[in-house]
Design goal:
It is globular, with a radius of gyration of 22 Å. An eight-stranded parallel sheet has the order 1-2-3-4-5-6-7-8. The chain has 17 helices and eight strands. It has 400 residues and is of the alpha/beta class. The longest helix is centred in the last third of the chain and has 24 residues.
Length: 400
């Protein structure tokens, strides 16, 4: 058995803790067909309209067919639906028929996660309903997305998911001390209800650098029925609230996942977080996506700070080559206990593709490390165990 086969066998036998997903609710998976699977995937992000019929498929595939997003998903679809040919206009309708037919079984999408992928646990970021488990508490351990706390200075502001925490919880708090007390109690309750982590996705809303701010500066932005505060006042409010959440994360021993890299791209590289990380040595920061395209930033932060963990989620889907370079580097600058992996997908089909992409990356890197004499086979299999299972069990809260 070669190392690639051993890695696959190892992962299959031990199972996986998947640290990041946006898996669709049951009601949406029941309606999936080929077009909807594509629309609920990163292929949709390629900027080319998903074809509505077989007649338009081949010209569309010529435009997106080399993108890693498409390659990983199309391979997954071909395997899951037992198709002899890869996706094309000639077989478009048959792919669609098989997807529709198979999803008539309401358990199919969960069977892919549990049986095909072998996930023991999935950290679910249901950004449409922060902290939700999609009605499957046996496998989904929610991340509690905190973006809407950064927009609670009044009841009219909205985060990128059109949420405001004051409205979501029926509050009208205009005092910063009362607001942070509410924030603390809400996070504490969410952890008690089963949330495994906190999650920030502010890289889609603003630069991720969090500056120093005071309660007085935060208070200046608060109030109902007043003119909207200035951008500078909002920034001070958000920085203060974010810092407070880091304190709460440390006190409650709940890790803090932070989206880095792709997003707005304006000041979203991981090194923007260095002052925040230095201010909060007792907070476990899980920096996501390898910081792509700034993968070196995370290597430096993981090397220097014992409270920084790298989550490889999404990176193998964005670029397997970048993942290979990054994994080679990170294995040389830190211990293997500071990396985790999540699929970062909405549909089970793409999750299977993401998992296969990660296994491919692991196989290439570990095979090269063994061939060069840097690792022996035991070292390599320890890395597999740690990234795919053990580390997440160590760093996340799965105790409800």
């Amino acid at each position: 058995m070669n190392i690639i086969e051993e890695i696959r066998s190892r992962i299959k036998s031990q199972g996986i803790i998947n640290t990041h997903a946006h898996h669709l609710p049951d009601s949406e998976t029941a309606e999936l067909n080929l077009v909807k699977v594509l629309e609920k995937s990163y292929v949709f992000w390629c900027g080319e309209t998903i074809p509505s019929s077989a007649a338009m498929a081949d010209s569309w595939i010529k435009k997106v067919g080399n993108r890693s997003y498409f390659v990983s998903l199309s391979r997954a679809l071909q395997e899951l639906y037992s198709m002899d040919e890869p996706l094309s206009g000639a077989v478009w309708d048959e792919y669609d028929r098989r997807i529709r037919k198979t999803h008539e079984n309401p358990e199919w999408h969960m069977d892919i996660l549990r049986k095909t992928c072998g996930y023991r646990t999935v950290v679910l970021d249901a950004y449409w309903k922060p902290g939700d488990n999609n009605g499957h508490p046996d496998i989904f351990k929610p991340a509690f997305r905190i973006n809407f706390f950064l927009y609670g200075y009044n009841n009219t502001a909205r985060d990128s998911n059109d949420l405001n925490v004051q409205l979501a919880y029926g509050q009208q708090i205009d005092n910063i001390k009362n607001y942070t007390d509410f924030l603390y109690q809400t996070i504490k309750d969410k952890k008690a209800a089963g949330c495994s982590s906190l999650k920030s996705a502010i890289a889609y809303e603003r630069p991720i650098a969090i500056g120093a701010s005071s309660a007085e500066e935060a208070q200046a932005a608060m109030g109902f029925g007043k003119p909207e505060p200035s951008a500078a006042a909002v920034r001070k409010f958000q920085d203060y609230v974010f810092d407070t959440i880091c304190d709460i994360s440390a006190e409650l021993k709940i890790p803090f996942q932070i989206h880095t890299g792709l997003g707005l791209l304006n000041q979203t590289n991981p090194m923007q977080l260095q002052p925040l990380i230095a201010r909060h040595p007792d907070t476990t920061f899980i920096l996501m996506h390898g910081g792509y395209p700034w993968v070196d930033d995370i290597c430096g932060l993981v090397h220097l700070y014992p409270n920084v963990i790298l989550d490889l989620c999404w990176l193998p889907l964005i670029s397997p080559s970048a993942s290979i370079r990054s994994l080679h580097e990170i294995l040389e600058v830190c211990n293997g206990d500071k990396m985790v992996w999540g699929c970062d997908t909405w549909a089970s089909e793409e999750s299977w593709g993401a998992l296969n992409s990660m296994i491919d990356v692991l196989s290439v890197v570990l095979n090269e490390k063994i061939s060069s004499g840097y690792f022996n086979k035991r070292n390599a299999l320890d890395v597999v165990d740690n990234i795919m299972l053990n580390n997440a069990g160590k760093w996340f809260c799965f105790n409800g």
